[in-house]
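Chain A, query sequence.
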Amino acid sequence: MKKFIQTIKNIIAIEDLRNKILATLGLVLIYRLGAHVVIPGVDPLGISAMQDQASNNGIVALINMFSGGAFSRASVFALGIMPYISASIVVQLLGMAVPYFQRLQREGESGRKKITQITRYLTVLITGFQAPAYLANLHHTAQNAFIMQSQDLFWVSAIIILIAGTMFTMWLGERITDKGIGNGISLLIMVGIIARLPKAFAAEIVSKLDSGGGGFIIFIIEMVILFLVFVSAIALVQAVRRVPVQYAKRIVGNKQYGGVRQYIPLKVNAAGVMPIIFAQALMFVPMMFARFNTETGNSIASAFSDITGFWYNFTFGLLIVIFTYFYTAITVNPTQMAQDMKNNGGFIPGIKPGKKTVEYLDEIMSRITFPGSVFLALIAILPVFAMIAGINNQFAYFFGGTSLLILVGVVLDTLQHIESHLLMRHYDGLTKSGRIAGRGGASQISM
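Chain A, predicted structure.
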């Protein structure tokens, strides 16, 4: 406790770090206030059906969690930062397949600015498609909440407001990145997830203390299991296979360069949460079979609409494993790594430079990606087991899935930034020994 208090004092003593933390808290507060501002023309008292849908529907509940409840409140931030995330993913995939985007990535700062500009334009386009769909769903579930006399005026103004809300949220995230601590976009998603935790936690306590809920002992067991799940998620995020690299010794004048051994940290989960996001997007496809109104189509749609069913989770887990291999293959480039080592006079002991090094690195990545992908799939479907065990749906989402990995990753990344400021000014870090390992580029949500 004494060390913790001393660490807080050290953080306050560093003016730059203190200002960054205050700026982050201020911008996050603005985001949370905006999440409670309802779209003009919508009656806040008439959207209870929308809130019920967000509590009971698995997919909608997940979207509502990422937006911090803004989705179910018909807020001006209802679409949150997710359109920007979608645009970033599209641009990142284009950078792996389209020569124009590959050239921009190699142009340094000017290329990065151009990519950022394209991502923003694409965000507006995606939000322009999602906003009418959101309003149509709102009209279907809570038709009485529309109180504006002119429906055409409402739709036009509401779409513009939703687009502006998403762009403002994106701006807040960028300001946090520039003026605050950590990655602003990731922090906003994490804050949205955490904002749902107190309500879900209270609901779980009430359900367990009610008659037939199992009592306080069952709740304690759930907390222990949740703690173990968090520990497992941290282990997955931080797990690496260190590949030794020896650098040749060079003597220039009276000085010696190289001759040291370093390590390449190959992450067990190099794909981060991206496979789960891709898999969740594809799980909407089977629902389209219901439109054909055939016996086969209805049975397929019925099987994949039940998020606690066997076929839904088996397919979901299999897609995560496949996408983990796919995303790792396109983000981790053994050929480039081998070339960089060769250019810097480095080599892996016992492995010939060039093609043999590429094959060796590729073999290691294939071996460590399999357990990483299986473990990621298990974490992704853990909320389903929690629901089956009797945990309420809102609280069950914290037992795994994208929300858990984002929480763990962002917290580790933010603590790493704070620790770097402390160590840079010769203060003790946040831990007694070792360093906090952040998520790194591959496991972050692509921005």
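The first strand starts at residue 240 and ends at 247. The beta strands are 240-247, 250-252, 255-257, 261-267, 346-347.
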